[in-house]
Amino acid sequence: RSARDSRFGSLEDMLERHPSRGPNDSALEVEKLAAALSLDLTPRSEEERRPEIDRARKEAFRAVETPLCDWAREQLSRGGDEIDAPPAAVAAYLDASDAEIVALREALADGDVPRWAMRIELRFQAPIPNLLGHLKVQKLLTADALYRIHRGEASAASRDLEASLVLNAGLHD
User: Fold this and answer.
1) pLDDT tens per residue across span 111-136
2) HEC assignment per residue over the chain
3) CA angle (158, 91, 79) in 5-degree steps
4) Calculated CA dihedral for residues 46, 49, 54, 59, nearest 10 degrees
5) What is the rounded CA–CA span in Å between residue 100 and residue 159?
6) Are 120 and 15 in contact (CB under 8 A)?
């Protein structure tokens, strides 16, 4: 056995620690709410249940994704408590998407930890979470938190960060 094998144990040990399961209701709800923002969290292997994603909303997010990420990265990389206003297009996107962001944030912050399907026994064919989608949701929640801090909405910003932590907890397994 290699060092890696001994650390994880046998396949039987892993299956005992991490039994097969499908997604929980929270994961399905979060997928639906993220899709309303044109963000896809559905694992590739489970495309049959993928919520409909509006093409126009997807293009709207694509148009602001780079400036949103650049602005958030800049705000996080410098010291101090001041948060600059985001670029106008980013602010307009966040304002126009406020209801959907709040719904996603509250479902994550108040609901059960989302758990996606796990089927280790399938080995290389096992479903894996849509990590690119998760990354985009994390970036959006972070940018929304910064925008809310800029606007003096510390409580809502805190909820964004709480939602981000819950989403990460769902990937821990």
Assistant:
1) 999 999 888 888 888 888 899 999 99
2) CCHHHHHHCCHHHHHHHCCCECCCHHHHHHHHHHHCCCCCCCCHHHHHHCCCCCHHHHHHHHHHHHHHHHHHHHHHHCCCCCCCCCCHHHHHHHHHCHHHHHHHHHHHHHCCCCCCCECHHHHHHCCCCCHHHHHHHHHHHHHHHHHHHHCCCHHHHHHHHHHHHHHHHHHCC
3) 55
4) -10
5) 14
6) yes
pLDDT of residue 74: 96
C-beta of residue 29 within 8 angstroms of C-beta of residue 110: no
pTM for this predicted structure? 0.88
89: amino acid identity, one letter: A
Amino acid at 55: R
Bridge partner residues of 21 (DSSP) = 118
| Residues constituting the chain | 173
Structure tokens at 7: 């650390």
Find out whether 119 and 45 touch, Cβ atoms under 8 Å.
no
Q: Tell me the Cα Rg of the chain.
A: 18
Least confident of 21-30, 31-40, 51-60, 107-116: 51-60
